[in-house]
Amino acid sequence: MMLAEELHFGHAAHRLGIAQPPLSQQIKRLEAAVGHELFHRSTRKVSLTPIGAELLETARTLLVQLAIGLDRIDHLAMEGASRIAVGFTATTSLRILPAIVRSFRSEHRDTQIELIELLPGQMRGALLAEQIDVALVRGPQIMADLEAVTLMIERFVAVLPEGHDMASPSAPFSLAELAEEQFVLFPRDRASEYLTRTLRLCEQAGFVPNVVEVHGWQTAISMVGSGMGVSILPESVAMLGTPGVVYRPIDSSGFPVCLLRRKDDKSLVVRQFIDCATAVAPSFEISA
C-alpha cells in the first residue's frame, strides 16, 4: 500500500525504512502470487494497473475492518458496553463516514462501532435482518419500513484524463461535449441509484453514453487515467488527488447522502449516531 500511495519506489522504501531493492523484490513476489501485474513501471513514473487499483481498494477495506475489529476487542471486557453496526457504500467512506465515526467515538467512547461495507441493494435486507443498525447511502430512499435522514447534497463530477480538451479549469465544460467518449461506470447491480442518476444526467445532456463496466470507483479512476475513457463519480473522490486525472464539477447534479434506520428501532445508540451525523454533515456540504 505504501508504494500505491507514493507511486515512487525510492520514496516508498524510505517511508518503510528499507532499501529500494528489497521493496522491488517484495512487489514482484506479490505480483507473482496474484498472477497479474499491479504497477505500470517506466523510467519516468510508476502507476497502478486497473487490477492493482482494484486490489488496493480491497486492501484498504480489509485494513479498516481489521482496525475496527481490534478496537472492538479492546472493549469486549466492558460490561454493558453498547454497540452499533454501520453499513456503508464505498464512496461514502471517503469523506463523511470517517468524520462521523471520529465525532461519535469522541462523544461515546464506550460504544463499539462495527463498519460493514455493502452494495446499495444489500442495505435494506441487512437493516431488516438486524445485521446493521444504520446505513449510509446515496440517493433518495423511500421505503415503508425504513426511515431516511438526509445528511447532505453532493454533486457529481466528470472524471477526465489529463490532456483532455476540457481538463483545464479555465476551459468551458459541458457534459454534452462528452457524448462521443467511452464512459467507465459501475454495473447496475453494484451502483443502484448512482447509475440511474448518471444515465439521467447524460440523457438530460442529449445523449446515451457508451458504457464499459468496472467493479469499483478506484478502478474507474485508474482506467480514466490510462486514457480508456471518462467517468462520472461523486465529488468526494476528488479528494484523492489521483495522478493523471482531472475532476470537473457537473452543475445541477445534486445527489443526497442519507442515513437509513428501521422505523421501529428506537434505541438510544442509533439516535445518538444520527444526531452526531446530522451535526457533522453540514461541514461537508458541497455548494451547487
TrEMBL record:
PROSITE patterns in UniProt: HTH_LYSR
Keywords, in A-Z order: DNA-binding, Transcription, Transcription regulation
Record-annotated HTH lysR-type domain positions: 1-49
Gene Ontology cellular component terms for the protein in this record: protein-DNA complex
Coiled coil: none
GO molecular function, a single term: DNA-binding transcription factor activity
Record-linked Pfam families: HTH_1, LysR_substrate
InterPro entries assigned to the protein according to its UniProt record, in alphabetical order: LysR_HTH_N, LysR_subst-bd, WH-like_DNA-bd_sf, WH_DNA-bd_sf
Classification via Gene3D superfamilies: Periplasmic binding protein-like II, Winged helix-like DNA-binding domain superfamily/Winged helix DNA-binding domain
Domain of life the protein comes from: Bacteria
Family: Belongs to the LysR transcriptional regulatory family.
Protein name, entry field: LysR family transcriptional regulator
Organism: Rhizorhabdus dicambivorans
